[in-house]
Specification:
By secondary structure, the chain is an alpha/beta fold. The protein is built from twelve helices and eleven strands. 26% of the residues are buried.
């Protein structure tokens, strides 16, 4: 039995058409027919019913499809493992990262980590914080870096970092030393408050701000990088983790506004894992040395 036959069979089962199968696999349609006939001969069963140009799995074909996919998966994993080994990798670490974390410290950390541990093959999946817990549970990732805590008893959750949250506004161009400070109430009542760009603190904070300033107008913006762009363009203001606006503050694109009447929350970063094996421990120890 050849794996090429299996690949043709699985593709044809998904397409329901030999012509389309040939196009997807970049082979001729007669070759598709030959592959299927050879596989049927090998198995001693009929895999498809032909209905004009369409094909339909037989009962035996439907049953064998499950095994064919598993065989191809094992074959593909073997090729990937061999390819990894020939490139010099001896270990693999798959990370599930929230977009917010991926947009701040992660690129620098990974660049430094891969230099120090060249034998580790890193895979990164960008996953919303609310979905990271399930990705870890399903073992789709070895380690999740999330903005949300996990209370699932099957998982290990560790606090990695605490980040202060500040009120930021577009820079007004005035000299920060000689100009009067921006007024919190005036900003919040004259601009849109851009909310829900962080999954951890906004529900409570929005209620607190609304109770203090009932006339405040709010606009939900789900991503921090879009929120920053909106603020720079003068569309609104927002409460953001310090680490996410550090560069814009230094470059003078945004300005921090002192907030007296509202108790500001913290933005936390958590490491979530199902197993605390050596590769997870090693990465967490390394990342803990960085300033968030």
């Amino acid at each position: 039995m050849e794996f090429q036959w299996l690949n043709t069979f699985v593709t044809a089962a998904d397409c329901g058409n030999f012509r389309r199968t040939a196009e997807l696999l970049y082979i001729s349609q007669p070759s598709v027919t030959v592959h299927i006939k050879q596989l049927e001969k090998e198995l001693g069963i009929l895999l498809f019913h032909r209905e004009g140009r369409k094909i339909k799995l037989t009962e035996e074909g439907t049953r064998y499809l499950i095994h064919a996919k598993k065989l191809l998966e094992v074959y593909q994993h073997g090729l990937e493992d061999l390819n990894t080994f020939t490139q010099g990798y001896t270990r693999k670490l798959t990370l599930g990262i929230s977009p917010l974390i991926a947009d701040t410290i992660l690129p620098y950390v990974l660049k430094s980590y891969t230099k120090q541990y060249p034998e580790v093959e890193i895979s990164v999946k960008i996953i919303e914080s609310v979905e990271i817990e399930q990705a870890v549970l399903r073992e789709e990732v070895d380690l999740g870096l999330s903005c949300l805590n996990s209370i699932n008893q099957s998982l290990i959750c560790k606090l990695l970092a605490k980040d202060s949250v500040i009120l930021v506004a577009p820079h007004d161009g005035r000299d920060s030393e000689s100009a009067p400070p921006l007024d919190e109430e005036e900003l919040l009542t004259s601009h849109y408050l851009l909310t829900h760009n962080h999954p951890g603190y906004w529900d409570l904070l929005a209620r607190v701000v609304k109770s203090k300033y009932p006339s405040v107008r709010m606009m939900k913006v789900s991503q921090v990088h879009i929120t920053k762009r909106f603020i720079i363009e003068g569309l609104g203001v927002s409460f953001l983790p310090t680490s996410t606006v550090r560069r814009e503050l230094l470059e003078g694109k945004l300005i921090e506004v002192h907030c007296e009447s509202i108790n500001l929350p913290e933005a936390n970063t958590y490491a979530i894992m199902k197993y605390e094996h050596s590769k997870q421990k090693e990465f967490l120890k390394y990342i803990s040395n960085f300033r968030w």
